[in-house]
Amino acid sequence: DTGNRLRFQLELEFVQCLANPNYLNFLAQRGYFKDKAFVNYLKYLLYWKEPEYAKYLKYPQCLHMLELLQYEHFRKELVNAQCAKFIDEQQILHWQHYSRKRMRLQQALAEQQQQNNTSVK
To answer: For the whole model, what pTM was predicted?
Structure first.
Protein backbone atom coordinates (compact mmCIF):
# COMPACT_ATOMS: atom_id res chain seq x y z
CA ASP A 1 0.00 0.00 0.00
CA THR A 2 1.37 3.41 -1.02
CA GLY A 3 0.14 5.16 2.14
CA ASN A 4 1.85 2.67 4.43
CA ARG A 5 5.07 2.87 2.45
CA LEU A 6 5.09 6.66 2.65
CA ARG A 7 4.42 6.53 6.39
CA PHE A 8 7.26 4.03 6.81
CA GLN A 9 9.67 6.28 4.90
CA LEU A 10 8.67 9.40 6.83
CA GLU A 11 8.97 7.70 10.20
CA LEU A 12 12.29 6.12 9.20
CA GLU A 13 13.68 9.52 8.22
CA PHE A 14 12.37 11.19 11.38
CA VAL A 15 13.69 8.49 13.73
CA GLN A 16 17.13 8.79 12.14
CA CYS A 17 17.06 12.57 12.59
CA LEU A 18 16.92 11.88 16.33
CA ALA A 19 20.58 10.80 16.14
CA ASN A 20 21.50 14.46 15.60
CA PRO A 21 21.86 16.25 18.96
CA ASN A 22 21.62 19.64 17.25
CA TYR A 23 18.24 18.68 15.83
CA LEU A 24 17.12 17.57 19.29
CA ASN A 25 18.25 20.94 20.64
CA PHE A 26 16.24 22.64 17.88
CA LEU A 27 13.11 20.66 18.83
CA ALA A 28 13.61 21.38 22.52
CA GLN A 29 14.08 25.11 22.03
CA ARG A 30 10.86 25.30 20.04
CA GLY A 31 8.88 23.51 22.74
CA TYR A 32 8.12 20.25 20.94
CA PHE A 33 9.13 18.19 23.96
CA LYS A 34 6.53 20.01 26.09
CA ASP A 35 3.75 18.93 23.72
CA LYS A 36 2.08 15.79 25.12
CA ALA A 37 1.04 14.62 21.65
CA PHE A 38 4.64 14.88 20.42
CA VAL A 39 5.93 13.00 23.48
CA ASN A 40 3.34 10.29 22.82
CA TYR A 41 4.53 10.11 19.21
CA LEU A 42 8.08 9.52 20.47
CA LYS A 43 6.75 6.69 22.61
CA TYR A 44 4.93 5.22 19.61
CA LEU A 45 8.18 5.28 17.60
CA LEU A 46 9.82 2.80 20.00
CA TYR A 47 8.69 0.05 17.60
CA TRP A 48 11.83 0.94 15.61
CA LYS A 49 13.83 -0.94 18.23
CA GLU A 50 12.39 -4.21 16.93
CA PRO A 51 14.88 -6.03 14.66
CA GLU A 52 12.41 -6.18 11.77
CA TYR A 53 12.47 -2.36 11.64
CA ALA A 54 15.92 -1.56 13.09
CA LYS A 55 17.60 -3.30 10.15
CA TYR A 56 16.63 -0.33 7.96
CA LEU A 57 18.44 2.25 10.11
CA LYS A 58 21.72 3.79 8.94
CA TYR A 59 22.27 5.61 12.23
CA PRO A 60 21.59 3.13 15.03
CA GLN A 61 22.48 5.70 17.69
CA CYS A 62 19.08 7.21 16.97
CA LEU A 63 17.56 4.32 18.92
CA HIS A 64 19.55 5.28 22.00
CA MET A 65 18.39 8.87 21.65
CA LEU A 66 14.81 7.71 21.15
CA GLU A 67 15.09 5.72 24.37
CA LEU A 68 16.53 8.73 26.26
CA LEU A 69 13.76 10.95 24.90
CA GLN A 70 11.27 8.88 26.88
CA TYR A 71 12.61 10.62 30.01
CA GLU A 72 11.32 14.09 30.81
CA HIS A 73 14.58 15.13 32.47
CA PHE A 74 16.56 14.37 29.29
CA ARG A 75 14.05 16.27 27.14
CA LYS A 76 14.35 19.30 29.44
CA GLU A 77 18.16 19.25 29.34
CA LEU A 78 18.19 19.36 25.55
CA VAL A 79 17.11 23.01 25.62
CA ASN A 80 20.67 23.77 26.69
CA ALA A 81 22.97 24.03 23.65
CA GLN A 82 25.88 22.83 25.81
CA CYS A 83 24.04 19.57 26.43
CA ALA A 84 23.61 19.02 22.68
CA LYS A 85 27.26 19.91 22.11
CA PHE A 86 28.38 17.41 24.76
CA ILE A 87 26.28 14.63 23.20
CA ASP A 88 27.64 15.50 19.77
CA GLU A 89 31.23 15.32 21.04
CA GLN A 90 30.58 11.99 22.75
CA GLN A 91 29.15 10.56 19.54
CA ILE A 92 32.24 11.67 17.62
CA LEU A 93 34.55 10.12 20.22
CA HIS A 94 32.58 6.88 20.10
CA TRP A 95 32.74 6.83 16.30
CA GLN A 96 36.50 7.48 16.31
CA HIS A 97 37.10 4.70 18.84
CA TYR A 98 34.85 2.30 16.90
CA SER A 99 36.58 3.15 13.60
CA ARG A 100 40.06 2.58 15.04
CA LYS A 101 39.02 -0.66 16.71
CA ARG A 102 37.36 -1.89 13.52
CA MET A 103 40.47 -1.05 11.47
CA ARG A 104 42.68 -2.99 13.90
CA LEU A 105 40.36 -5.99 13.72
CA GLN A 106 40.32 -5.88 9.91
CA GLN A 107 44.12 -5.66 9.79
CA ALA A 108 44.47 -8.61 12.15
CA LEU A 109 42.04 -10.64 10.05
CA ALA A 110 43.89 -9.76 6.83
CA GLU A 111 47.22 -10.77 8.41
CA GLN A 112 45.74 -14.03 9.62
CA GLN A 113 44.30 -14.80 6.17
CA GLN A 114 47.64 -13.99 4.57
CA GLN A 115 49.43 -16.36 6.99
CA ASN A 116 46.87 -19.08 6.26
CA ASN A 117 47.38 -18.61 2.49
CA THR A 118 51.19 -18.79 2.77
CA SER A 119 51.08 -21.88 4.99
CA VAL A 120 48.74 -23.71 2.56
CA LYS A 121 51.17 -23.23 -0.38
So the answer is: 0.73
